[in-house]
Write a structure and sequence with these properties.
It is built from no helices and ten strands. The chain has a ten-stranded antiparallel beta sheet, with no helix packed on it. 0% of the residues lie in helices and 74% in strands. The protein has 189 residues and is mainly beta.
Length: 189
């Protein structure tokens, strides 16, 4: 719509090697940006995730706040979002859960590199406002290569870095996880 953008990202990974499962992660993320005069915006973000190998039966995050579009052109944008948030994590190993009041700070870039190639990156920081020990960081970066003349279908080569300063306590898991992927993306005009 003219001054409102609603983006939904969903997907998952399931894999096995020699009959042993080595990945099982599913997610849904919804972002609504409502443009305001002079580059400002209001946003609402909702994220839902299941990740077996991080011991997370459910992680739900929500945030509302303001943002600013430093660059807002037809083929490129650079924006930042900032606002309060809340995350609920339910852990499979311990059966416990954690609720974290946090601050969301997010930088999003969509930029052309070459004639049929784009860079997409989103960096999200979620420090807890109640405990300096709890901090989550996620970076999704990808290069998209257009597969058709309308730029609807693209080959996406990307990586994701997840950092959780306090992973589920009884699991013995490390705080950082890096994932690379190759996927086909459809962009609805």
């Amino acid at each position: 719509r003219e001054n409102s953008l609603h983006r939904i990202d969903w997907g998952g990974r399931f894999g096995q090697v020699n009959g042993l499962r080595n990945t099982n992660r599913w997610f849904l993320e919804s972002t609504i940006d409502r443009s305001q005069p002079a580059g400002w915006l209001y946003y609402i973000i909702s994220k839902h995730e299941y990740n077996e190998f991080q011991g997370i039966d459910y992680r739900g995050s929500g945030s509302v706040g303001v943002g600013y579009k430093f660059v807002d052109e037809k083929d490129r944008h650079l924006l930042m979002r900032l606002g309060p948030g809340l995350t609920l994590e339910v852990y499979s190993d311990s059966g416990g859960h954690r609720v974290t009041e946090e601050l969301l700070a997010e930088i999003e870039i969509d930029w052309p590199l070459f004639e049929r190639t784009r860079l997409e990156t989103k960096t999200t920081m979620r420090p807890s406002v109640g405990s300096l020990d709890v901090f989550r960081f996620r970076n999704n970066t990808a290069v998209l290569v257009a597969l058709d003349d309308e730029d609807r279908w693209s080959l996406k080569l990307g990586f994701r870095l997840d950092y959780n300063s306090v992973p589920e306590s009884t699991s013995g898991r490390v705080p950082m996880d890096v994932t690379t992927d190759v996927s086909i993306v459809y962009l609805r005009p």
